[in-house]
Structures are given as structure tokens and as C-alpha cells.
Amino acid sequence: MSVSPDFRTDLATGVVDRAIYTSEEILALEKERIFARTWRYACTIRDLRNPGDYFTLSVADQPVLVIRGNDGEIRAFHNACSHRGAVLTDERCGNQGQVLKCMYHAWSFNLKGDLTGVPYDEGYGPGFDRGAYGLKPVACETFHDLVFVALRPTVPSLTDFLGEMADHLAPYVQGIEPIGRNSWIYDGNWKLWHENFRDDYHAEFTHRSIRDLLAGTTARGWNWGAAPGHSVLQWAFPPLDPPKYARALQRFSGVDFSDGTMPVGWSSMLAQGPPGPPEGFAGGEPPEIRQEVLAVFPNLDIQPGPKDTPRGMKAGYLQTVTPLGVNRARVDITVYSDVEDDDATRQEQLENLADTQGSWGKLSCDDTEAAARCQIGVRGEGGRSNLFTRGVAPGRGGESADVRDEYSQREFFRVYQQYLRDES
């Protein structure tokens, strides 16, 4: 598609043309110029422990399969038989043994993508070359425990694509493994969800549970747009108020918490591990507990547990948002834990995250409603632009920026606009 979108505003300024949420033409450009050209998170290396283990995803509407070979290598291919195009598996994940076999005509491929079996191949004549009909490879790289794929990467190296985010992300994604998954669909543009995880301006207003348990959660923190297109939000926890939270839950749900039982959820937000200050703390006032949300362009969000607690950095969730249409998107969330965690710890982590994250979660349901409301409004004539201009100092923010600032979103839109205008 050789066309450059004619935005009514310079998106990098934070004054964002609402057409990007409603235009079918822009969605087509996003798939062609962003999703097909950037590195896309696929799964973790521990989803692919054994030869034949695979994971599938859709990238720019193209089915992709990631699989571990007998040599230990992780490779990615277009999930389409070279004969007639049938997808080789329509399952999300599993194990294919030693062979990828098409259900249509039983063409078979080994774990390196080579065509190894063609029933009655003599019918194609003596010149038939199996070597010309292997699976088409897709670029695949790992960053510590995360696996990424790219159809036609503008930036060939994954590490270069991560840029300033690489060093910040690395400590969070080593020694982790997935322990649960959930997906849901919402009525809204995909960017509305990803923007939300670059935004700490909304938390105290949108989320009643945060307001009750963690009043003032955005009073201290910072906001950083990490080039190219990524971001980090960090905030410090205020004193927790579990009784207030329990009273509010009881008032709105009718469930009796008068026996002092802490509701499921939010214990993942408390100091994990033994009571008391972090290991190695020498005395005086204990350090504040901080938490971060990391966003990787274009559609990956990572929310680890508190970074100052014994196991918080190795417990959290990864989520991606995928456009299903201009006003419909799917969220896929993976809960992860430390590889050393026991079963009881993992079960607690699953229950905590399921209580807050997911289509029913006390946080995600609020964010889902916000996205749906925004989608309804941007289709109307109430305004031409969305505003992301909080934080007036030059640059991309950082530790001197307020956590409610919007450097994070502006960095996203700066790179988003570059990709959409690149006609090469």
C-alpha cells in the first residue's frame, strides 16, 4: 500500500488524530507497516521445553508457528502447508512429536521445516523437488526467557529493536515460566488497551479497588518514554489499607469479610516472602516498595510484582493486544512465576492475578469498560483529537517526570507515526 496517512496533527506532540482509532485504511497500514515490520512477543522459552513443543500466534493476520527442534533451536515458520495452504495446527500450543503433518493431504515436515513426506509423490513427475517446498521461515530471536518473531523486521536485531528498554527489561525476564493464561475480546481499538498500560493518570479514578486499598498510589513515581517506542512507569506504594478495601468489597458485593479474612487478590501487591524488611536491610526506615509497568512497542505490556520484595520481580504477567478489526481487539495474558516457586506459591499467584487481571478482574474489567467507552466517543463528532500532553519539560521524561505525565504515550506515537509514514 503506497500511501502515507495524512494526519491532522503531529502525533509525536501528543495531540492525536482520532481517525487512527476509526479508520479501516489506517488499520490496514498498521498491519502492513507496524505489525509485519516489528518484533512481536510470541511465548516464553519454557513454553517450548522439548523437541516438538510449539506455540502459535497471528502476526498481521498471518498464522505463525514457533517450535523447538531436536537440536534445541527455536524456529518460527508460517503456519501454512506449502501444498495448499492449510494451517498445520489450529491449536494454541502443544507437542507435534517429530513431524508436522498437514491434515488435508498428509504432506509432512520435520522440525526444521523441511518437506519430508509426500504421499504418492511419483505423480508429480521426476523433476519434483521437495527442497523447494519446505515451510517458509519467520525471523525468530529470544531475549532471555522471551521468544519474539518478525515477518519483515525493519530493525533486524531484536536487541537493537528493544533499544533503551533492553537493560531495564532484562532482570525481569530471566528464570521465569508461565503458569496460566487467559484471553478475552473487547469492543475497542487495539491502541486504547496498549495506551492504558502506559498511563498512570487514570488509576486512582478508574479503579475503585486501587482507591480503597492503595489511596495515593500515584503520589510518587516517574514516567519514561524509552526509545524506540517503549516505556516504563514506576510508582511507590503508599501505606496499604486492607480493612478499608474489605469493607468496600463487602458493601458492593454482599460478601461478609468481618472475620478479618483478606480477600483473594492484592496479596501479590503486598510484600512477598517472610514478614519484615527486605533481605539485607540494615536498619532505619525501610526502603519504599516500588512497582513498574513496562510497555514494548507495539503491543506487549509487562507488569511484574513489586521490585523491592524478595520474589516480586519474578512474578507477574505478560499481555499482548491484537486487533481483530478497527473497533475490536483480543487481549492475551500470561501469568508467570519464578522457576523455583513451589506449587502452593504458584497457586496463590494464579488466584491473585485472576482476581485483578482478566475479563472479570477487579482492574481489567475497569480498563475494558474504559476502552469500550472511548471507542464509542471517538467515533462521534465531540472532538477531533485525543490529548497526551501532560509533562511539559523537553525530552522523554525519566526519574524527574511525574508518574501521571504522558511521555510514555508520546514516545509510542512518535515511533507509531514513523512506521506508518515509511512507504519503503
TrEMBL record:
Q: Where is the Rieske domain?
A: 40-149
Q: What is this protein called?
A: Benzoate 1,2-dioxygenase large subunit
PANTHER family given in the database record: 3-PHENYLPROPIONATE_CINNAMIC ACID DIOXYGENASE SUBUNIT ALPHA, CHOLINE MONOOXYGENASE, CHLOROPLASTIC
Q: Which family does it belong to?
A: Belongs to the bacterial ring-hydroxylating dioxygenase alpha subunit family.
Tell me the gene name: benA
A GO MF label: 2 iron, 2 sulfur cluster binding
| Pfam families named in the record | Rieske, Ring_hydroxyl_A
Keywords from the named record? 2Fe-2S, Iron, Iron-sulfur, Metal-binding, Oxidoreductase
Q: Known InterPro entries for this protein?
A: Rieske_2Fe-2S, Rieske_2Fe-2S_sf, Ring_hydroxy_dOase_asu_C_dom, Rng_hydr_dOase-A
The family database entries (PROSITE patterns) matched by this protein are listed as: RIESKE
Q: Which domain of life is it from?
A: Bacteria
